């Protein structure tokens, strides 16, 4: 088996050290570059003789986010495959990363052995997802259920205002309530719909799930 060249973009020092120690002991994988940011990685690859075939990429980084960095990385390394390795497991992050060009998505709960396995699978042309991530992707293809019955009439009003692009202050003024009340309603809406962001809420509305 030929050696797989690996690049890592991760700003957590403990995670860096753990990955570095592990991959230094793997004869089949050569970590040619480790950086704390996408910007530093893009600068450093210019001086490399051997370029990474696979990149392990975090999302929450110094400087630009990993998701924003994916197109830039693929522009410089068009033959590289990107594996997300992150604590973010929300639908929005998964969707954006895969749409941007990542081929695999791993939770940071993934063992080092499984991360190595993912790298080997991707190097052979496959894709690899943590089980919890894979389930979310599968669920995204399931028939959409209308979830409007999970919301109160007031919460539906707030959803409509958010979809119209109104700020919390504008919503509060329209509904004659305080901004804190609006925030509480939105928190309860997210909980009821099992989502984590305004983008997911708007997507559900556009997909006629509300």
From TrEMBL:
One of its GO terms (molecular function) is DNA binding. This is DNA-binding response regulator, NarL/FixJ family, contains REC and HTH domains. Keywords: DNA-binding, Phosphoprotein. InterPro entries: CheY-like_superfamily, NreC/VraR/RcsB-like_REC, Sig_transdc_resp-reg_C-effctor, Sig_transdc_resp-reg_receiver, Tscrpt_reg_LuxR_C, WalR-like. GO terms for biological process: phosphorelay signal transduction system; regulation of DNA-templated transcription. SMART domains: HTH_LUXR (SM00421), REC (SM00448). The keyword tRNA-binding does not apply. The modification 4-aspartylphosphate is found at residue 58. SUPFAM superfamilies: C-terminal effector domain of the bipartite response regulators, CheY-like. Residues 144-209 form the HTH luxR-type domain. Residues 5-123 form the Response regulatory domain. The keyword Isomerase does not apply. Pfam families: GerE (PF00196), Response_reg (PF00072).
